[in-house]
Amino acid sequence: MVNHSKKSINQYAGYIYLLPGLAWIFFVFAIPIIQLIGMSIRQGPVGQEILGFDNFIFTFRDPLFIKAITNNIKLLVIVPILIILSLIFSTFLYERIKGWQIYQTIIFIPVILAVAAMGIVFSQILQLKGLLNETLRVLRLNFLIQDWLGNQGLALGSVVGVIVWKELGFGTILFLARLMSVDKELYEAARIDGASGFQLMIHITIPQLIHIIEFYAVLLIVTAFSFVFDYILILTNGGPNNQTIVGEFFVYKYGFIYNRFNIASSVAIVYLLVGIVLMILRYQIVKRIDS
Amino acid sequence: MKKIALSRIMKQIIMITMVVIALVPIYYVFVTMFKSPDEYLFNKWGLPLELSLENFKRLMEGETIFRWLINSLIISGFSVLISILVASMMGFAIARFDFPGKSALFVAVTSLLVLSPAVLVIPLFKSMVKLGLINTYYSAIIIYTGIMLPISTYLLTNFFKSIHNDIIDAALIDGCSLFQIYYRIMIPLSMPAIVTAALTNWLYVWNEILIGLIFLQSDKMRTLMPGLSLFKGKYTTNIPLTMAGVAVAIIPTFVIYLMGQRYFVKGLTEGAVK
After folding, report:
1. Are residues A15 and A97 in the same domain?
2. Do A117 and A218 share a domain, yes or no?
3. Element housing B143 (H / E)
4. Which B residues, 246 through 265, put their C-beta within 8 Å of a C-beta on chain A?
5. Residue A39 to residue A22: CA distance in whole angstroms
6. Lesser CB count within 10 Å: N end or C end of chain B?
7. Residues A85, A44 within the same domain
8. Mind listing the pLDDT tens digit for each residue in B109-122?
Protein backbone atom coordinates (compact mmCIF):
# COMPACT_ATOMS: atom_id res chain seq x y z
CA MET A 1 0.00 0.00 0.00
CA VAL A 2 2.38 2.75 1.06
CA ASN A 3 5.87 1.66 2.04
CA HIS A 4 7.44 -1.58 3.13
CA SER A 5 7.51 -0.90 6.83
CA LYS A 6 3.76 -0.37 6.89
CA LYS A 7 2.90 -3.14 4.51
CA SER A 8 3.08 -6.10 6.84
CA ILE A 9 0.89 -4.44 9.47
CA ASN A 10 -1.60 -3.37 6.86
CA GLN A 11 -2.06 -6.87 5.60
CA TYR A 12 -3.21 -8.15 8.96
CA ALA A 13 -5.46 -5.14 9.41
CA GLY A 14 -6.94 -5.91 6.02
CA TYR A 15 -8.06 -9.29 7.25
CA ILE A 16 -9.83 -7.69 10.20
CA TYR A 17 -11.87 -5.55 7.83
CA LEU A 18 -12.73 -8.61 5.79
CA LEU A 19 -13.84 -10.66 8.73
CA PRO A 20 -17.47 -9.55 9.29
CA GLY A 21 -18.23 -9.78 5.59
CA LEU A 22 -16.67 -13.21 5.26
CA ALA A 23 -18.52 -14.46 8.33
CA TRP A 24 -21.78 -13.26 6.86
CA ILE A 25 -21.09 -14.81 3.47
CA PHE A 26 -20.26 -18.10 5.18
CA PHE A 27 -23.43 -18.14 7.20
CA VAL A 28 -25.85 -17.03 4.49
CA PHE A 29 -24.25 -18.57 1.38
CA ALA A 30 -21.46 -21.08 1.99
CA ILE A 31 -22.88 -23.14 4.84
CA PRO A 32 -26.38 -23.43 3.31
CA ILE A 33 -24.86 -24.55 0.00
CA ILE A 34 -22.78 -27.23 1.74
CA GLN A 35 -25.79 -28.35 3.78
CA LEU A 36 -27.93 -28.45 0.67
CA ILE A 37 -25.48 -30.71 -1.13
CA GLY A 38 -25.34 -32.91 1.95
CA MET A 39 -29.09 -33.11 2.29
CA SER A 40 -29.79 -33.94 -1.27
CA ILE A 41 -27.34 -36.82 -1.54
CA ARG A 42 -27.94 -38.31 1.88
CA GLN A 43 -31.70 -38.59 2.04
CA GLY A 44 -33.91 -40.52 -0.30
CA PRO A 45 -37.05 -39.22 -1.93
CA VAL A 46 -39.28 -40.89 0.64
CA GLY A 47 -37.03 -40.19 3.59
CA GLN A 48 -34.88 -43.33 3.79
CA GLU A 49 -31.11 -43.22 3.66
CA ILE A 50 -30.21 -43.58 0.05
CA LEU A 51 -26.70 -42.69 -0.99
CA GLY A 52 -25.63 -41.31 -4.31
CA PHE A 53 -27.58 -39.78 -7.07
CA ASP A 54 -30.90 -41.59 -6.74
CA ASN A 55 -32.43 -38.32 -5.70
CA PHE A 56 -31.46 -36.66 -8.92
CA ILE A 57 -32.79 -39.52 -10.98
CA PHE A 58 -36.03 -39.18 -9.06
CA THR A 59 -36.03 -35.43 -9.62
CA PHE A 60 -35.38 -35.69 -13.33
CA ARG A 61 -38.17 -38.22 -13.68
CA ASP A 62 -40.62 -35.94 -11.92
CA PRO A 63 -42.83 -34.43 -14.65
CA LEU A 64 -43.54 -31.41 -12.47
CA PHE A 65 -39.83 -30.64 -12.18
CA ILE A 66 -39.45 -31.00 -15.93
CA LYS A 67 -42.38 -28.63 -16.33
CA ALA A 68 -40.74 -26.13 -13.96
CA ILE A 69 -37.38 -26.09 -15.70
CA THR A 70 -39.05 -25.99 -19.11
CA ASN A 71 -40.99 -22.94 -17.99
CA ASN A 72 -37.81 -21.25 -16.81
CA ILE A 73 -36.35 -21.92 -20.25
CA LYS A 74 -39.50 -20.62 -21.95
CA LEU A 75 -39.21 -17.43 -19.92
CA LEU A 76 -35.95 -16.75 -21.77
CA VAL A 77 -38.17 -15.21 -24.42
CA ILE A 78 -37.90 -12.02 -22.32
CA VAL A 79 -34.26 -11.75 -23.45
CA PRO A 80 -34.85 -10.86 -27.12
CA ILE A 81 -38.10 -8.98 -26.41
CA LEU A 82 -36.57 -6.70 -23.81
CA ILE A 83 -33.33 -6.15 -25.72
CA ILE A 84 -35.17 -5.08 -28.86
CA LEU A 85 -37.66 -2.84 -27.05
CA SER A 86 -34.94 -1.28 -24.89
CA LEU A 87 -32.85 -0.55 -28.00
CA ILE A 88 -35.80 1.19 -29.63
CA PHE A 89 -36.79 3.27 -26.63
CA SER A 90 -33.25 4.20 -25.65
CA THR A 91 -32.61 5.39 -29.22
CA PHE A 92 -35.73 7.58 -29.11
CA LEU A 93 -34.64 9.08 -25.82
CA TYR A 94 -31.10 9.54 -27.10
CA GLU A 95 -32.44 11.50 -30.07
CA ARG A 96 -33.97 13.90 -27.54
CA ILE A 97 -37.48 13.28 -28.79
CA LYS A 98 -39.79 15.99 -27.50
CA GLY A 99 -40.63 15.33 -23.84
CA TRP A 100 -37.76 12.87 -23.42
CA GLN A 101 -37.08 13.85 -19.82
CA ILE A 102 -40.65 13.07 -18.74
CA TYR A 103 -40.60 9.83 -20.73
CA GLN A 104 -37.34 8.86 -19.06
CA THR A 105 -38.77 9.40 -15.57
CA ILE A 106 -42.00 7.53 -16.33
CA ILE A 107 -40.42 4.55 -18.07
CA PHE A 108 -38.35 3.85 -14.95
CA ILE A 109 -41.29 3.88 -12.49
CA PRO A 110 -42.35 0.23 -13.02
CA VAL A 111 -38.75 -0.83 -12.25
CA ILE A 112 -38.99 0.39 -8.66
CA LEU A 113 -42.49 -0.85 -7.85
CA ALA A 114 -42.91 -4.14 -5.99
CA VAL A 115 -43.95 -7.13 -8.08
CA ALA A 116 -46.12 -8.21 -5.16
CA ALA A 117 -48.07 -4.96 -5.26
CA MET A 118 -48.30 -4.52 -9.02
CA GLY A 119 -48.98 -8.23 -9.54
CA ILE A 120 -52.23 -7.81 -7.63
CA VAL A 121 -53.14 -4.96 -9.95
CA PHE A 122 -52.28 -6.97 -13.05
CA SER A 123 -54.33 -9.92 -11.90
CA GLN A 124 -57.32 -7.53 -11.91
CA ILE A 125 -56.44 -6.04 -15.29
CA LEU A 126 -55.94 -9.43 -16.94
CA GLN A 127 -59.14 -10.98 -15.58
CA LEU A 128 -61.90 -12.13 -17.92
CA LYS A 129 -63.82 -8.93 -17.11
CA GLY A 130 -60.68 -6.88 -16.54
CA LEU A 131 -59.45 -3.69 -18.15
CA LEU A 132 -57.59 -5.38 -20.98
CA ASN A 133 -60.64 -7.25 -22.22
CA GLU A 134 -62.89 -4.20 -21.71
CA THR A 135 -60.48 -2.17 -23.84
CA LEU A 136 -60.46 -4.85 -26.53
CA ARG A 137 -64.26 -4.78 -26.52
CA VAL A 138 -64.33 -1.00 -26.98
CA LEU A 139 -61.84 -1.33 -29.84
CA ARG A 140 -64.16 -3.96 -31.40
CA LEU A 141 -61.44 -6.58 -31.12
CA ASN A 142 -63.73 -9.06 -29.37
CA PHE A 143 -62.00 -12.03 -30.99
CA LEU A 144 -58.89 -11.25 -28.91
CA ILE A 145 -60.70 -11.44 -25.57
CA GLN A 146 -59.16 -14.11 -23.37
CA ASP A 147 -58.92 -15.31 -19.80
CA TRP A 148 -55.30 -14.14 -19.77
CA LEU A 149 -54.19 -15.77 -16.53
CA GLY A 150 -56.75 -18.58 -16.35
CA ASN A 151 -56.12 -20.09 -19.78
CA GLN A 152 -53.53 -22.89 -19.61
CA GLY A 153 -51.95 -21.99 -22.90
CA LEU A 154 -51.80 -18.25 -22.25
CA ALA A 155 -50.90 -17.84 -18.58
CA LEU A 156 -47.13 -18.04 -19.00
CA GLY A 157 -47.32 -15.60 -21.91
CA SER A 158 -49.23 -13.16 -19.72
CA VAL A 159 -46.55 -13.50 -17.05
CA VAL A 160 -43.98 -12.61 -19.73
CA GLY A 161 -46.05 -9.52 -20.54
CA VAL A 162 -45.95 -8.37 -16.92
CA ILE A 163 -42.19 -9.01 -16.67
CA VAL A 164 -41.65 -6.92 -19.80
CA TRP A 165 -43.84 -4.14 -18.35
CA LYS A 166 -41.75 -4.13 -15.19
CA GLU A 167 -38.26 -4.52 -16.70
CA LEU A 168 -38.41 -2.37 -19.84
CA GLY A 169 -37.36 0.84 -18.10
CA PHE A 170 -34.24 -0.79 -16.71
CA GLY A 171 -32.89 -1.89 -20.09
CA THR A 172 -33.82 1.40 -21.71
CA ILE A 173 -32.00 3.51 -19.13
CA LEU A 174 -29.05 1.10 -19.10
CA PHE A 175 -28.62 1.42 -22.86
CA LEU A 176 -29.27 5.15 -22.78
CA ALA A 177 -26.47 5.69 -20.25
CA ARG A 178 -24.05 3.94 -22.60
CA LEU A 179 -25.36 5.69 -25.71
CA MET A 180 -24.63 9.07 -24.12
CA SER A 181 -20.92 8.26 -24.28
CA VAL A 182 -20.92 7.20 -27.95
CA ASP A 183 -19.17 9.66 -30.23
CA LYS A 184 -21.92 11.79 -31.82
CA GLU A 185 -19.85 12.23 -34.96
CA LEU A 186 -20.39 8.59 -35.81
CA TYR A 187 -24.09 9.27 -36.22
CA GLU A 188 -23.65 12.58 -37.98
CA ALA A 189 -21.25 11.12 -40.53
CA ALA A 190 -23.61 8.23 -41.22
CA ARG A 191 -26.58 10.57 -41.60
CA ILE A 192 -24.72 12.69 -44.10
CA ASP A 193 -24.09 9.50 -46.05
CA GLY A 194 -27.87 9.05 -46.07
CA ALA A 195 -28.20 6.17 -43.65
CA SER A 196 -31.73 5.35 -42.47
CA GLY A 197 -32.71 5.00 -38.82
CA PHE A 198 -32.68 1.23 -39.17
CA GLN A 199 -29.20 1.29 -40.72
CA LEU A 200 -27.94 3.49 -37.90
CA MET A 201 -29.27 0.94 -35.44
CA ILE A 202 -27.59 -2.02 -37.17
CA HIS A 203 -24.27 -0.40 -38.06
CA ILE A 204 -23.65 1.99 -35.18
CA THR A 205 -25.92 1.58 -32.17
CA ILE A 206 -25.72 -2.21 -31.80
CA PRO A 207 -21.94 -2.52 -32.39
CA GLN A 208 -21.31 0.37 -29.98
CA LEU A 209 -23.55 -1.14 -27.32
CA ILE A 210 -22.61 -4.76 -27.86
CA HIS A 211 -20.95 -5.30 -24.49
CA ILE A 212 -23.74 -3.72 -22.57
CA ILE A 213 -26.27 -5.72 -24.59
CA GLU A 214 -24.43 -8.91 -23.66
CA PHE A 215 -24.38 -7.85 -20.05
CA TYR A 216 -28.10 -7.10 -20.09
CA ALA A 217 -28.77 -10.44 -21.76
CA VAL A 218 -26.98 -12.25 -18.93
CA LEU A 219 -28.93 -10.24 -16.40
CA LEU A 220 -32.19 -11.25 -18.08
CA ILE A 221 -31.16 -14.91 -18.22
CA VAL A 222 -30.48 -14.68 -14.49
CA THR A 223 -33.91 -13.12 -13.99
CA ALA A 224 -35.63 -15.88 -15.98
CA PHE A 225 -34.02 -18.63 -13.88
CA SER A 226 -33.55 -17.04 -10.46
CA PHE A 227 -35.89 -14.13 -9.86
CA VAL A 228 -39.41 -14.82 -11.12
CA PHE A 229 -40.93 -16.22 -7.92
CA ASP A 230 -42.85 -13.03 -7.11
CA TYR A 231 -44.54 -12.89 -10.51
CA ILE A 232 -45.64 -16.50 -10.34
CA LEU A 233 -46.85 -16.41 -6.75
CA ILE A 234 -48.97 -13.33 -7.23
CA LEU A 235 -50.19 -13.68 -10.81
CA THR A 236 -50.92 -17.39 -11.16
CA ASN A 237 -49.83 -19.21 -8.00
CA GLY A 238 -48.22 -21.73 -10.35
CA GLY A 239 -51.50 -22.47 -12.08
CA PRO A 240 -53.69 -23.05 -13.88
CA ASN A 241 -53.01 -26.75 -13.45
CA ASN A 242 -49.27 -26.19 -12.71
CA GLN A 243 -48.79 -24.66 -16.16
CA THR A 244 -46.73 -21.77 -14.83
CA ILE A 245 -44.66 -23.51 -12.16
CA VAL A 246 -40.97 -22.49 -12.09
CA GLY A 247 -38.00 -23.71 -10.06
CA GLU A 248 -38.20 -21.21 -7.22
CA PHE A 249 -41.93 -21.78 -6.86
CA PHE A 250 -41.37 -25.55 -6.83
CA VAL A 251 -38.88 -25.19 -3.97
CA TYR A 252 -41.25 -22.94 -2.03
CA LYS A 253 -44.32 -25.10 -2.56
CA TYR A 254 -42.70 -28.47 -1.80
CA GLY A 255 -40.48 -27.17 0.95
CA PHE A 256 -42.83 -24.89 2.82
CA ILE A 257 -46.40 -25.79 1.84
CA TYR A 258 -46.10 -29.59 1.50
CA ASN A 259 -43.15 -29.94 3.91
CA ARG A 260 -41.29 -32.21 1.49
CA PHE A 261 -37.81 -30.83 2.12
CA ASN A 262 -36.05 -33.70 0.33
CA ILE A 263 -37.79 -33.16 -2.97
CA ALA A 264 -37.45 -29.39 -2.66
CA SER A 265 -33.73 -29.55 -1.88
CA SER A 266 -32.98 -31.81 -4.86
CA VAL A 267 -34.61 -29.22 -7.07
CA ALA A 268 -32.74 -26.43 -5.27
CA ILE A 269 -29.48 -28.23 -6.12
CA VAL A 270 -30.32 -28.25 -9.81
CA TYR A 271 -30.91 -24.50 -9.62
CA LEU A 272 -27.66 -24.09 -7.72
CA LEU A 273 -25.89 -25.68 -10.69
CA VAL A 274 -27.76 -23.38 -13.04
CA GLY A 275 -26.64 -20.51 -10.82
CA ILE A 276 -23.01 -21.56 -11.05
CA VAL A 277 -23.18 -21.69 -14.84
CA LEU A 278 -24.70 -18.19 -14.83
CA MET A 279 -21.96 -16.94 -12.51
CA ILE A 280 -19.31 -18.12 -14.94
CA LEU A 281 -21.19 -16.60 -17.86
CA ARG A 282 -21.54 -13.29 -16.04
CA TYR A 283 -17.87 -13.30 -15.08
CA GLN A 284 -16.83 -13.75 -18.70
CA ILE A 285 -18.97 -10.80 -19.79
CA VAL A 286 -17.86 -8.50 -16.98
CA LYS A 287 -14.24 -9.35 -17.69
CA ARG A 288 -14.72 -8.35 -21.31
CA ILE A 289 -16.34 -5.05 -20.31
CA ASP A 290 -13.45 -4.27 -18.00
CA SER A 291 -10.80 -4.86 -20.65
CA MET B 1 -38.76 16.72 -45.01
CA LYS B 2 -42.28 15.33 -44.90
CA LYS B 3 -40.87 11.91 -44.19
CA ILE B 4 -38.96 13.17 -41.17
CA ALA B 5 -42.06 14.85 -39.74
CA LEU B 6 -44.02 11.65 -40.20
CA SER B 7 -41.42 9.52 -38.44
CA ARG B 8 -41.34 12.06 -35.63
CA ILE B 9 -45.10 11.67 -35.17
CA MET B 10 -44.76 7.88 -35.26
CA LYS B 11 -42.12 8.01 -32.54
CA GLN B 12 -44.30 10.22 -30.38
CA ILE B 13 -47.21 7.81 -30.82
CA ILE B 14 -45.01 4.88 -29.78
CA MET B 15 -43.68 6.79 -26.78
CA ILE B 16 -47.12 7.90 -25.63
CA THR B 17 -48.41 4.33 -25.94
CA MET B 18 -45.50 3.20 -23.78
CA VAL B 19 -46.26 5.85 -21.17
CA VAL B 20 -49.95 4.92 -21.08
CA ILE B 21 -49.12 1.22 -20.64
CA ALA B 22 -46.59 2.03 -17.93
CA LEU B 23 -49.00 4.23 -16.02
CA VAL B 24 -52.38 2.50 -16.39
CA PRO B 25 -51.79 -0.02 -13.55
CA ILE B 26 -50.69 2.82 -11.27
CA TYR B 27 -53.67 4.94 -12.28
CA TYR B 28 -55.90 1.98 -11.45
CA VAL B 29 -54.49 1.74 -7.92
CA PHE B 30 -54.94 5.42 -7.19
CA VAL B 31 -58.51 5.68 -8.49
CA THR B 32 -59.77 2.39 -7.03
CA MET B 33 -58.52 3.02 -3.53
CA PHE B 34 -61.09 5.79 -3.05
CA LYS B 35 -64.08 3.76 -4.18
CA SER B 36 -66.54 1.75 -2.13
CA PRO B 37 -67.16 -1.87 -3.15
CA ASP B 38 -70.59 -0.78 -4.43
CA GLU B 39 -69.20 2.02 -6.53
CA TYR B 40 -66.55 -0.30 -7.92
CA LEU B 41 -69.29 -2.55 -9.34
CA PHE B 42 -70.52 0.09 -11.76
CA ASN B 43 -67.45 2.35 -11.95
CA LYS B 44 -64.45 0.10 -12.39
CA TRP B 45 -62.02 2.22 -14.37
CA GLY B 46 -63.28 5.79 -14.10
CA LEU B 47 -62.32 8.46 -11.60
CA PRO B 48 -63.84 8.00 -8.14
CA LEU B 49 -67.13 9.84 -7.47
CA GLU B 50 -65.72 11.19 -4.22
CA LEU B 51 -62.34 11.09 -2.48
CA SER B 52 -63.42 8.90 0.43
CA LEU B 53 -60.75 7.61 2.81
CA GLU B 54 -63.08 4.90 4.11
CA ASN B 55 -60.80 2.10 2.83
CA PHE B 56 -57.79 3.46 4.67
CA LYS B 57 -59.83 3.74 7.86
CA ARG B 58 -60.80 0.11 7.49
CA LEU B 59 -57.19 -0.88 6.86
CA MET B 60 -56.05 0.86 10.00
CA GLU B 61 -58.86 -0.61 12.10
CA GLY B 62 -57.52 -4.09 11.58
CA GLU B 63 -54.13 -2.70 12.61
CA THR B 64 -52.37 -5.60 10.93
CA ILE B 65 -51.25 -3.62 7.91
CA PHE B 66 -49.95 -0.86 10.14
CA ARG B 67 -47.95 -3.45 12.05
CA TRP B 68 -46.64 -4.90 8.78
CA LEU B 69 -45.56 -1.44 7.67
CA ILE B 70 -43.61 -0.94 10.90
CA ASN B 71 -42.05 -4.41 10.55
CA SER B 72 -40.97 -3.61 7.00
CA LEU B 73 -39.48 -0.29 8.06
CA ILE B 74 -37.51 -1.85 10.93
CA ILE B 75 -36.25 -4.83 8.95
CA SER B 76 -35.35 -2.88 5.82
CA GLY B 77 -33.70 -0.14 7.87
CA PHE B 78 -31.48 -2.41 9.92
CA SER B 79 -30.58 -4.76 7.06
CA VAL B 80 -29.51 -1.88 4.84
CA LEU B 81 -27.51 -0.24 7.61
CA ILE B 82 -25.65 -3.40 8.60
CA SER B 83 -25.12 -4.49 5.03
CA ILE B 84 -23.60 -1.16 4.07
CA LEU B 85 -21.37 -1.20 7.14
CA VAL B 86 -20.11 -4.74 6.54
CA ALA B 87 -19.76 -4.22 2.79
CA SER B 88 -17.87 -0.96 3.22
CA MET B 89 -15.35 -2.68 5.51
CA MET B 90 -14.93 -5.51 3.06
CA GLY B 91 -14.71 -3.06 0.16
CA PHE B 92 -12.06 -1.06 2.03
CA ALA B 93 -9.97 -4.19 2.51
CA ILE B 94 -10.33 -5.30 -1.10
CA ALA B 95 -9.71 -1.86 -2.58
CA ARG B 96 -6.81 -0.81 -0.36
CA PHE B 97 -4.89 -3.86 0.84
CA ASP B 98 -2.82 -6.52 -0.85
CA PHE B 99 -3.42 -10.07 0.16
CA PRO B 100 -3.28 -13.37 -1.67
CA GLY B 101 -6.45 -14.37 -3.47
CA LYS B 102 -7.81 -10.84 -3.36
CA SER B 103 -9.25 -10.68 -6.86
CA ALA B 104 -10.58 -14.24 -6.59
CA LEU B 105 -12.37 -13.27 -3.41
CA PHE B 106 -13.87 -10.20 -5.07
CA VAL B 107 -15.10 -12.25 -8.03
CA ALA B 108 -16.49 -14.99 -5.78
CA VAL B 109 -18.35 -12.62 -3.49
CA THR B 110 -19.82 -10.46 -6.20
CA SER B 111 -20.81 -13.48 -8.34
CA LEU B 112 -23.17 -14.58 -5.60
CA LEU B 113 -25.67 -11.94 -6.62
CA VAL B 114 -26.68 -14.23 -9.47
CA LEU B 115 -27.82 -16.98 -7.13
CA SER B 116 -31.54 -17.38 -6.49
CA PRO B 117 -32.45 -17.05 -2.80
CA ALA B 118 -34.70 -20.08 -3.35
CA VAL B 119 -31.53 -22.20 -3.45
CA LEU B 120 -30.63 -21.12 0.08
CA VAL B 121 -33.94 -21.05 1.90
CA ILE B 122 -34.27 -24.70 2.93
CA PRO B 123 -30.93 -25.03 4.78
CA LEU B 124 -31.31 -21.49 6.13
CA PHE B 125 -34.74 -22.37 7.44
CA LYS B 126 -33.33 -25.42 9.22
CA SER B 127 -30.54 -23.32 10.78
CA MET B 128 -32.96 -20.62 11.88
CA VAL B 129 -35.26 -23.21 13.46
CA LYS B 130 -32.28 -24.59 15.39
CA LEU B 131 -31.32 -21.10 16.53
CA GLY B 132 -34.91 -20.35 17.49
CA LEU B 133 -35.00 -17.30 15.24
CA ILE B 134 -38.06 -18.04 13.07
CA ASN B 135 -40.63 -15.27 13.42
CA THR B 136 -38.09 -12.82 14.78
CA TYR B 137 -36.62 -9.72 13.19
CA TYR B 138 -33.17 -11.30 13.57
CA SER B 139 -33.68 -14.06 11.02
CA ALA B 140 -34.89 -11.65 8.34
CA ILE B 141 -32.24 -9.03 9.08
CA ILE B 142 -29.40 -11.59 9.06
CA ILE B 143 -30.52 -13.10 5.76
CA TYR B 144 -31.29 -9.83 3.99
CA THR B 145 -27.97 -8.37 5.11
CA GLY B 146 -26.15 -11.38 3.68
CA ILE B 147 -28.07 -11.42 0.42
CA MET B 148 -27.32 -7.75 -0.18
CA LEU B 149 -23.60 -8.06 0.53
CA PRO B 150 -22.54 -9.09 -3.00
CA ILE B 151 -24.10 -6.06 -4.69
CA SER B 152 -23.12 -3.62 -1.91
CA THR B 153 -19.54 -4.87 -1.90
CA TYR B 154 -19.45 -4.59 -5.66
CA LEU B 155 -20.68 -0.99 -5.73
CA LEU B 156 -18.56 0.20 -2.81
CA THR B 157 -15.32 -1.55 -3.76
CA ASN B 158 -15.46 -0.03 -7.22
CA PHE B 159 -16.00 3.40 -5.76
CA PHE B 160 -13.23 3.00 -3.17
CA LYS B 161 -10.83 2.03 -5.92
CA SER B 162 -11.52 5.33 -7.65
CA ILE B 163 -10.42 7.39 -4.61
CA HIS B 164 -6.91 8.70 -5.09
CA ASN B 165 -4.09 7.00 -3.21
CA ASP B 166 -2.51 10.41 -2.59
CA ILE B 167 -5.22 11.34 -0.12
CA ILE B 168 -4.61 8.17 1.88
CA ASP B 169 -0.82 8.51 1.74
CA ALA B 170 -1.10 12.06 3.07
CA ALA B 171 -3.34 10.88 5.90
CA LEU B 172 -0.86 8.13 6.80
CA ILE B 173 1.99 10.63 6.92
CA ASP B 174 -0.14 12.78 9.21
CA GLY B 175 -0.33 9.79 11.53
CA CYS B 176 -3.90 8.66 10.87
CA SER B 177 -4.68 5.13 11.96
CA LEU B 178 -6.25 2.68 9.52
CA PHE B 179 -9.57 3.01 11.25
CA GLN B 180 -9.39 6.78 10.94
CA ILE B 181 -8.66 6.41 7.24
CA TYR B 182 -11.68 4.16 6.83
CA TYR B 183 -13.99 6.23 9.00
CA ARG B 184 -12.79 9.77 8.37
CA ILE B 185 -11.73 9.59 4.73
CA MET B 186 -13.17 6.64 2.82
CA ILE B 187 -16.70 6.82 4.20
CA PRO B 188 -17.29 10.58 3.82
CA LEU B 189 -15.72 10.65 0.35
CA SER B 190 -17.87 7.72 -0.73
CA MET B 191 -21.21 9.15 0.33
CA PRO B 192 -22.67 9.22 -3.21
CA ALA B 193 -21.87 5.51 -3.65
CA ILE B 194 -23.15 4.69 -0.18
CA VAL B 195 -26.45 6.47 -0.78
CA THR B 196 -26.80 4.69 -4.10
CA ALA B 197 -26.11 1.28 -2.59
CA ALA B 198 -28.37 1.95 0.39
CA LEU B 199 -31.31 2.98 -1.76
CA THR B 200 -30.97 0.03 -4.13
CA ASN B 201 -30.74 -2.35 -1.21
CA TRP B 202 -33.64 -0.75 0.59
CA LEU B 203 -35.74 -1.20 -2.53
CA TYR B 204 -34.82 -4.88 -2.67
CA VAL B 205 -35.75 -5.58 0.95
CA TRP B 206 -38.92 -3.52 0.80
CA ASN B 207 -40.16 -5.41 -2.26
CA GLU B 208 -38.95 -8.92 -1.35
CA ILE B 209 -41.49 -11.66 -0.57
CA LEU B 210 -39.96 -15.17 -0.61
CA ILE B 211 -37.77 -14.76 2.49
CA GLY B 212 -40.46 -12.75 4.22
CA LEU B 213 -43.04 -15.48 3.66
CA ILE B 214 -40.75 -18.23 4.94
CA PHE B 215 -39.04 -16.67 7.93
CA LEU B 216 -41.80 -14.38 9.22
CA GLN B 217 -44.90 -16.53 9.27
CA SER B 218 -46.88 -15.15 12.19
CA ASP B 219 -49.36 -12.43 11.41
CA LYS B 220 -47.69 -10.05 13.85
CA MET B 221 -44.17 -10.44 12.44
CA ARG B 222 -45.07 -10.28 8.77
CA THR B 223 -43.64 -7.62 6.48
CA LEU B 224 -45.73 -5.57 4.10
CA MET B 225 -45.24 -7.27 0.73
CA PRO B 226 -45.71 -10.88 1.88
CA GLY B 227 -48.69 -9.63 3.88
CA LEU B 228 -50.07 -8.03 0.76
CA SER B 229 -49.64 -11.23 -1.22
CA LEU B 230 -51.88 -12.97 1.32
CA PHE B 231 -54.27 -10.03 1.23
CA LYS B 232 -55.09 -10.97 -2.30
CA GLY B 233 -56.72 -14.20 -1.25
CA LYS B 234 -58.34 -12.73 1.83
CA TYR B 235 -60.17 -9.82 0.26
CA THR B 236 -60.86 -11.01 -3.28
CA THR B 237 -64.34 -9.59 -3.00
CA ASN B 238 -63.22 -6.16 -1.80
CA ILE B 239 -60.93 -4.89 -4.55
CA PRO B 240 -60.93 -1.23 -3.45
CA LEU B 241 -59.72 -2.24 0.00
CA THR B 242 -56.97 -4.37 -1.56
CA MET B 243 -55.93 -1.42 -3.74
CA ALA B 244 -55.72 0.81 -0.68
CA GLY B 245 -53.31 -1.79 0.72
CA VAL B 246 -51.31 -1.75 -2.51
CA ALA B 247 -51.15 2.04 -2.28
CA VAL B 248 -49.81 1.89 1.27
CA ALA B 249 -47.08 -0.46 0.02
CA ILE B 250 -45.99 1.54 -3.02
CA ILE B 251 -46.33 5.13 -1.80
CA PRO B 252 -43.07 5.02 0.25
CA THR B 253 -41.27 3.76 -2.84
CA PHE B 254 -42.72 6.57 -4.93
CA VAL B 255 -41.70 9.22 -2.44
CA ILE B 256 -38.17 7.90 -2.19
CA TYR B 257 -37.90 7.51 -5.96
CA LEU B 258 -38.93 11.08 -6.58
CA MET B 259 -36.47 12.31 -3.98
CA GLY B 260 -33.51 10.21 -5.06
CA GLN B 261 -34.21 9.40 -8.69
CA ARG B 262 -30.64 9.83 -9.88
CA TYR B 263 -29.29 7.57 -7.14
CA PHE B 264 -31.76 4.84 -8.01
CA VAL B 265 -31.02 5.04 -11.70
CA LYS B 266 -27.31 4.99 -10.97
CA GLY B 267 -27.46 2.17 -8.45
CA LEU B 268 -29.62 -0.04 -10.58
CA THR B 269 -27.91 0.59 -13.93
CA GLU B 270 -24.41 2.04 -14.07
CA GLY B 271 -23.32 0.46 -10.82
CA ALA B 272 -24.28 -2.97 -12.05
CA VAL B 273 -22.05 -2.69 -15.09
CA LYS B 274 -18.78 -1.23 -13.93
Report:
1. no
2. yes
3. helix B137-162
4. 246, 249-250, 253, 257, 261, 264-265
5. 24
6. N
7. no
8. 989 988 999 999 99
* Stretch 126-155 of chain B: residues touching chain A, C-beta under 8 Å: 126-127, 142-143, 145-147, 149, 153
Same domain membership, residue A33 and residue A74: no
A128 CB near a chain B CB, below 8 Å? Answer: no
My answer on whether A114 and A94 are in the same domain is yes
How many distinct structural domains can be found in chain A?
2
**CATH 1.20.1560.10, applies to B55-273:** no
Query: For the segment B22-52, what is each residue's pLDDT rounded down to a tens digit?
Result: 999 999 999 999 988 888 888 878 888 888 8
Structural domain containing residue A18: 4-61
Taking Cα atoms as reference points, which of B212, B248, B220, B216 lies closest to residue A117? B248
Same domain, A43 and A115: no
ipTM, 2 dp: 0.89
Q: Give the domain ranges of chain B.
A: 55-273
Shortest CA distance from A169: residue in chain B: B22
CB-based contact B198:B148 (threshold 8 Å): no
Segment B253-261 long-range contacts (CB within 8 Å, at least 24 positions apart): B253/A112, B253/A113, B253/A114, B253/B203, B253/B206, B253/B207, B256/B199, B256/B202, B256/B203, B257/A109, B257/A112, B260/B195, B260/B199, B261/A105, B261/A108
